[in-house]
Amino acid sequence: MARANSLIAVSAEKAGWRDYLELTKPKVVAMLLLTALVGMCLAVPGIPPAVPVILGLLGIGMQSAGAAVFNHVLDQRIDQQMQRTQNRPVAKGRVDNVKALVFGTVLAVAGFGLLTYLNVLTAMLTFASLIGYALVYTVWLKHATPQNIVIGGLAGAMPPLLGWTAVTGELHPHALLLVMLIFTWTPPHFWALAIHRKKDYAKAGVPMLPVTHGVEYTKTMMLLYTVLLVAVGILPWLAGMSGMVYLLGSLALNLGFVAYALRLKFHDRKGLAWDTFKYSIWHIFGLFVVLLADHAATVLAA
Q1: pLDDT computed for residue 1 by the predictor
Q2: Among 117, 122, 95, 121, which residue's Cα sits nearest to residue 24?
């Protein structure tokens, strides 16, 4: 045991900047910031003011990165048992828990300070999202129920609302529609990964839906959620917050997700769940890019 601890300590001392960058889950944070930026742009008729955009993105990004670091520490045992995550910096011992917690705390506090300077509403909502993801989801929900990703997905769906409040300082129903888009997208996105990594989740004792209810049931739920996503995707157009560019783009993207879910349910093949997961990432990226393009077209036409 002493030798193992010594090896971990040595490897932790050799941790490089890439390890600390990996702790922040930069790709995930980048996607969250895109959705926050879209929320900022849609919050105002024209181009949002530069200062709230810069401070808002920095603060939201820092708090999101801090939450990701805490997730690495809290999920260390699970990460060590799963092939997909066993080489993460904390799980592998390249960064020890104390250093990771200090790093995550600095990010979270700095982000909270920036957002508080901007406006208290955004700071509190972002902090609530951090708690929801890093503690409520990671520590409790993830292990308590196969509906973990449905309930816990709310924290990951908040960035558009945070971006909106960063610019306006107030809540608005249109911002909640953007939250609904990500909230509805999240379950089929993660369930595709859970199907692909079912053995890993079972080994780690995480009650993901394919583990507790079987793959076929999970495929059915994925199909239902993707159909629901089509309906939710129309709401921004019906509410008048977006135009035809968004409507046509979102329908194409959402129906594409339905097509993947249909193939997965009725014509499954090896690797299709992974392909569906990869499509879902490009899908949500495309959906918010289309929202942004639609808004830009409206601004230019005005």
Answers
A1: 42
A2: 95
